[in-house]
Each structure stands twice: as structure tokens, then as C-alpha cells.
Design goal:
Blueprint: H1 2-12, H2 21-26, H3 28-41, H4 43-50, H5 55-81, H6 90-102, E1 105-109, E2 118-122, E3 135-140, H7 160-178, E4 183-188, H8 199-205, E5 214-218, E6 230-232, E7 237-246, H9 261-275, E8 284-291, E9 302-311, H10 314-335, E10 338-347, E11 350-352, H11 354-366, E12 394-397, H12 409-415, H13 418-440, H14 442-457, H15 459-467
Parallel strand pairs: 3-4, 3-5, 5-12
Antiparallel strand pairs: 1-2, 2-4, 6-11, 7-9, 7-10, 8-9
Length: 479
Amino acid sequence: MRKFFLLTLCLASVLPAQETATERIAAKEVLRKMDELEKSLNIPGLVAKVTAPNAERDKVVARAKQLMDTDLLAMGDDITKNPEIGFQETRSIKLLMNYLDQHGFVTEAGIAGLRTAFIGKYKRAGAFANSPGPNLGVILEYDALRGTKGAFHGDQHSTQGPIGMAVAIAVAEYLERAKLPGNVIVIGTPGEEMMPPAAKTQMFDAGIFKNIDVMVRSHAVTATTRPAPGFGTCCLNIDGVKYTFSGAPAHQMTPWAGRNALEGVIHLFNNIDSIRASLRPEARIQGIISEGGAAPNVVPDRAVADFYIRYPDAVYLAQVREFVDNAAKAAALSTGTKVAIENYGRMRDGISLATLGETAFFYLKKYGATNVQEEPAKPSGFEETGSVSSIIPGVSFSAQTSTFANHTYEMEKDALAEIGHKGFVADAEGMAALLFDFATQPDYRAAVQKEFKGIQALFDEYQQALKKVYPVPNVPEPK
């Protein structure tokens, strides 16, 4: 088994690192440097050494599994059955914080100006009461999706919090029992599925993640995967943009006496359809009409469209965004309305690491994760906004927890079923094992830091390379 795993790692190191062919070609020199960095780290040898049998690690993993089996799978089921959308997760955080309080953590809610964000730190005793580190961070999430039938946990965030707590408690108890330096910090992050605000970015800007040395989290998936090293995000770089059209009311029998804001929004959608052929095929422009008037017999004087504008990299995303903004301005001009453009959220590239990703993948397979995909996926930072994962090393654990796609009612049902529970426990066991290794092996921490700093240093060069391959055509003045 181990020989096969090492072969898999060797093959993975030569696979393309970035998401699109354009990125790979334009940034080939950056990717060459990244490949040299990966080779210098000898990832297969590193993972074999780090994951060597260890009886103490086994005890920590067993404790995380015990917590899941006795308490935390049931808590996840409870949160699944009582969903709360982003920034309204008051019941969910009460359950999570109470459990942490009962297991040696000191918690605080309402941080960074977010009512349902919280932080918890394990209270060390004696000489380690003010331990300088390493500081081990665990992200907890708990928000439900917004659906036409109401809130629902079609992304299984309901058990991400319990998984993270099992890991945090098991590792913190070990550090205390073994009298080893280190701190375990859990960070409850609301509204993963919502902007505004981009919660993790706001929390990052407020210093909530300051001085953390490594972050772990879990997330529901349909296959057991890990990312390739490099720059990227799970769901493309995103601008969250709201287009608010203002018109003038009138009776619908005499609509010429007013100006129809809803027509402005409809023209915006039509204009976007007309520009799709001028955009690269990887672009995604996704919108809804969130306000469209109050009554059929009154010309709507206010209408709002909410869009996520996406592209694999932020450089070309700027061009896509300009197209959409201009489409909105043209819609307003042609309908005699006015439009306000509000960029209320951004998600950008994070950094993924082989030192963490390959170790996590080894443990997921060891602890029984199913539907294992041996080929690395695209590079993807461990959290969506990029603000945290471009500054702090980390990894997202992704054991299969459903056979249905994310954001579906069927995935919510699987959160309560054996397939979900099995994957949740595998995530908890794998996360506990990796944090044990990070806390107890200085050489491993140094390798993670070397890889992270090396890739981080290449990001500006990567951005500059991409700017050269996305020229804007010169459109002459009409004659």
C-alpha cells in the first residue's frame, strides 16, 4: 500500500498545477520554479516520515473518533434538522460553544463585528498557560443554504462544526496531558455561503487569525480528493456585485409617465447574454432579481439584481467585471433609469500545499474514506475568500460524504445517513492526525513553512505573467 502511495505522489508532482491552459502556458516559468520547490521538499519521503506509526497519535485519533461517535455526530444531525442561514446561526453556535466550554475551552461570540462569529481557545494550565506555540487553528462552519423551500443543509456545514470540535478537543487534551507547548484555537466562521460581508475576510482584517501557524477545516464532497499545490480557489475568483436600478413610479396604464427600473434589470440580463461570446468560456456570470417592484399596476421605481461574477484568476476577472458593469450602465441609459453598482464581496486565490494536502490525503485513505480520486484536483486554498489561505498555511479535508452534488436536498439527506457519518468521522480522524504531526514534529512544521513561503513569493510573478496574455483589443473610433 505504501509503495503505491509513494508512486502516486511522484506522478502527482509532474501534473499541471493551475486550472486553465492559459494559466499554465502564461505562467510556465512560475510553475517551473514551483515544481523545483516541490522536488526540493521530497514530498513522498516527507509524508512517509511524518506519517510513520506512532502510538500517541493513535490515541489522539481514537479520542476524536470517540467524541464523534458518542456526541458529535448526533449534534451534527441536530443542526442539520434545525438549519439557520448565514449570520443567523444563533442556535447552532450556542450548541457548539457550550460543548467547547464543557471541554476546557474559553469561548467568545460576536467577534469582528459579526454576531454569530466566535473564537475559542483551550485553557492551558501551569507552565503552558502562556504557551508561545505552535498555534493550531481549526475552522468551524455551520450556516445553511438559502433555498426556495427555506434554509437547508445541502452543503453539510451542519457537521463541519462538530468535526472541528472533535479534532480540537482531542489535540488540546493531548498537548496538556503530554506537557507539550502549543495552543489550539477554534474559529467559528458564519455565512460561508453568503456575502456581504465576506465573513472570513472581515475576521481576518480584525486580526482574529493573527499568529496562527496552521489551519484545518473539513468540507462535504462527493469524492475523496486533495488539491494540487499552487494558487486557486474552490469556486473561482468572485466579485459579488449588486446592481440597483432607480426609476420613477407611474400607473401601468400610463407607463410613459414613469421610468421602469425593472426594465433596466431585464435589459441588464439581456445585455449580459449579448456579451457572452466576447468572454472566455471559463467565465461564469450568475445573477438573480432580488427586487422587482411591489405591484403589477405600478411602474417599479426600484429593482435590484444580485450577481456573482467568476473567473479562474483575478486578472481576467477584471475584464469580465468591466463588461458586466458596462452592461448595467447601458441598460440604465436605454431605459431612462439610473443604476448604482455595489461591489459587496470578493473571493480571491488562496494557496494550497503538498506538504499538508498529501499528508491529509494519506490519512483520509488510512481512516477509510471512500470514492478516492488518486489524481490531484486543481489548486485550491483551504477557505473561500483567499484572505486567510494566502497568508496562513492550511488544508481542507475532503472525505466523501455524499453521492449527490453539493447544494442539493439529497446531500442534506446524506448528512444524516451512513455515508455522511462515515466521511465525517474520517475527516475528524485525519485532521486530528495531521495536527498531532504538526504539533510534535518541528521538521514537518519547517517543511510546511518552506513550501508556503516559496509559493507565496511567486504570486506577484504569477499575476504579472497573466496580465501579458489577456490583452484588451484596440477598438478604433467609428469613421
